[in-house]
Amino acid sequence: MNRQQLLCDSRSLMKSLVILISGRGSNMKALLDAKLPTENITVISNNPKAAGLAVAEERGVQTLVVNHRNYSDRVSFDTALAEKIDGYQPDLIVLAGFMRILSDRFVNRYQNRLINIHPSLLPSFPGLKTHASALHEGVKIHGCTVHFVTPKVDYGPIILQAAVPILPDDTEQILAARVLQQEHYVYPQAVRWFLEGRLKNIENRVEICETTTRNTVLYSPGLPE
Ligand code: GAR
User: Fold this and answer.
1) How many angstroms does the Cα of residue 214 sit away from the middle of ligand 1?
2) CA 125/CA 12 separation, integer angstroms
3) Structurally, how many domains does the chain consist of?
4) pTM for this one?
5) Could you tell me the CATH number of the domain that includes residue 136?
6) Which residues constitute the domain of residue 173?
7) Which residues pair with 65 in a beta bridge?
8) What is the pLDDT of residues 78-97, one digit of tens each?
């Protein structure tokens, strides 16, 4: 048996997902439309006005609100959220534009089964306003990152990244749209790999079983052929 086989464990397909949102829910929509190998998906929002709730309901997906405003502090909100989540016994919890910082206790409870998408090439530009920061710093390549969540915010083992060029006329909005398009592509892929048991976290590096890596280089601006 070679190393690759040893790393792969697709014997038990994982079937239950909880997706946490706070707003628009376009990443959630990409996940719901991706026909992932799941038996059960539940969408939970901390924000009763999140537009994504209606998007999920239109697709017949069960939704739930745990309004953070009803709790006096982060720990009591996280405890209530965890109770709801555990009721669904999810194999994976997916943060899809969930804009609350989660307590260490919450994050540790779901170690190795809590993932996030962040709109930058981490570890560059953690936090908010990532596109404005990328433009401000004059970087030429920007993107998004899917990663396992650890107590340090916008950190943790990286599963998949997509890079896009920054072009001369970019505004924050134009750049955000270019990155978001890639978010919708990479997030379902990363979740599928997880559900298929193809992700192995080895000393902070995530290996993906049986995937092909094309030997490509991205230059920005483009170089002559
Ligand atoms: C996405 O760009 C996502 O990467 C970002 O919020 C947006 C949510 O959009 N998440 C974070 O910044 C988390 N640190 P969506 O609600 O349309 O998916």
Assistant:
1) 28
2) 36
3) 1
4) 0.93
5) 3.40.50.170
6) 12-208
7) 45
8) 999 999 999 999 999 999 99
pLDDT digits (tens, 9 = 90+) for 93-138: 999 999 999 999 999 999 999 999 999 999 999 999 999 999 999 9
Q: Is residue 149 part of a domain?
A: yes
Dist. CA 101 → ligand 1 center (Å): 13
221 within a domain of the structure (yes/no)? no
What does DSSP assign to residue 167? Answer: P
Q: Tell which atom from ligand 1 comes closest to the C-alpha of 179.
A: 2
Q: Using a CB cutoff of 8 Å and minimum separation of 24, what contacts does 199-202 make? A: 199/159, 200/7, 200/8, 201/112, 201/148, 201/157
* Mean pLDDT, rounded, for 187-192: 97
Question: Is there a domain that residue 108 lies in?
Answer: yes
Q: What is the atom index within ligand 1 of the atom nearest the CA of 28?
A: 18
Interacting residues of 50 by C-beta distance below 8 A, sequence separation 6+: 21, 22, 23, 24, 25
Domain presence at residue 86: yes
Q: Residues with catalytic annotation?
A: 118
Cβ 224 vs Cβ 176: under 8 Å: no
Instruction: Give residues (CB < 6 A) around ligand 1.
Output: 21, 23-27, 52, 96-97, 117-119, 154, 180, 183
Residue 79: how many CB atoms within 10 A of its CB?
15
